[in-house]
Amino acid sequence: MVDVTRRRLLHTGVAAFAAPVIGALDSSVSRVHAQATSPAPQPAAEAADRWRHALSLFGEPKYPADFKHFDYVNADAPKAGTLRQVAIGTFDNLNFVVAGVKGTVAGPVLLIYDTLAANSYDEVGSAYGLVAEAVRYPADWSSATYRLREAARWHDGKPITPEDVIFSFDAFKANSPMRAAYYRHVVKVEKTGEREVTFTFDQAGNRELPQIVGELQMLPKHWWEGTDASGKKRDIAATTLEKPLGSGPYRIKEVSPGRAIVLERVKDYWAKDLAVSAGINNFDTVRYDYFRDTTVALQAFKADAVDWREENSAKDWATAYDFPAVSDKRVVLEEFPVRDRGVMQAFIPNSRRAKFSDPRVRNALNFAFDFETMNKQLFYGQYQRIGSYFSGTELACSGLPQGKELAFLEPLRAQLPPEVFTTAYSNPVAGSDEAVRKNLRESFRLLREAGYDVRDRKMVNAKTGEPFTIEFLIADPSSERIVLGYIPSLKRLGIESTTRMVDDAQYINRRRSWDFDIIIGSWAESLSPGNEQRAYWSSQSADTAGSPNYAGIKNPAIDALIEKVIYATDRESLVAATHALDRTLLWNHYVIPQWTYNKARTARWDRFSHPQTMPKYGEAAFPLVWWWDKDKAAKVQQRS
Questions:
Q1: CATH code of residue 305
Q2: pTM for this structure?
């Protein structure tokens, strides 16, 4: 399920859609987390077409229909205060329907919208009614019907209707390649009652689809089909800096294009008394200031211009937090465990280009990467090398395939690298002169097998004589040192490599059109992978502009394994199918894996408090479940 980006935005305030790279730079967007406890398979009788207050992929949801609030919130948290947040990058668009396709979207705009259902942060794969009060689906999961709450309202007071749901779905599917892939099995959306809307799927058995459509953000049809202050008709397929109408806990108060966006809490929010809303969204005002450079953002935090920072630089975490406010406890440094997702962060070669189309070439580039030395010299030894696309979760493959995983792989044996069945995957290990020389010899061997040779100290195509060159495309200065740490090894192979720094807009446009050799990126994975895997790795998405299949993967075996993941009938099958997919991706050497960390490093000015029981999933859950603490704020002021 693709709830990872929204969760990260709600928890950290990072403008996810404005970031020039999916992943962070020297730490992961998603870090290692503990294995999830698998709920029991859902009995067939429980899949009957009945109204439900919540959805769970496998088993029953934790909370009953009459629950008052989630266990991880303070239902009596005060509603007050201003929170100042950091966002990295820039923005020129407030229409997130076209995110990833047109303009650079301000991520905080997501906070003004409601969804049909709201995720729980102490369960795997459960969601409870928000705009919808109930949902039902037949035993074969071939459709899902949501019944909207009569009280659901837009910020202008008009009701949220089935027509709004249909309009929202059609808008996303028509204008977002990611959503089009995500919703590809939804063939019809129709009004089936005064407050009911039914999603019909093109095949049965995909138990994730009822929950996927529940993640749909509601858009006001009447507003988007109306005119702006100048009388111009609005266009859902175009960028805009007009403040859009929403229905969520916040509305947009101020916009300074590319620089800042200010949200204000909607005090008469229609859902404020629902159980899913209790104890969250506690700040009266939330301000996001945009910084193009993380170094400048850090200085703004030190100057008390922003309140909270999640640190993604190992170097800065080790060396940059020695200023007086930390010493006298006005600033609190704290690490929170990450349990809700895994990650693959990597150098991503564009396999659409002939020089990267051979897996032996991509593997050779991995052998040339000396992670161990980089970790010691640049990252203070804080990181671990990533060895899975689902790193840190029970979904990561290990050892050799057996049981159900082997059963999924066996019919595809002829299409898979033989190592899938014979060798447990591991990355090359360097860190010493001897190990580096050994790895470079293996790189030479693989490149020669792939048709390359060294002439005049340059790696060239043996047939054409064309030099093997690499351009690393980056948009953040802090990623430059990472690339510069890699280039010397490539030079020893005779590969001429350069770094190309571009602005955010150019980076996004080049990435959309696949105009790059290698980029740095990451894919965050939830504990319940499903339909989003098609967007990440499928043959169809490889040619879809704006999709997250950056590597250009076109592999029938991977397409087949994605379907096994999506149509898993129980948790055991889901885990086995994901292991098989993971193993196949790894042994095709589509990326050069980077590194990960198992905690979120955070720094905050000590003006806030959080519940005693924190969510199991979702890092610090900031600012979702936190609140302004006037007593702490007064003490900080006194010590300043």
A1: 3.40.190.10
A2: 0.77
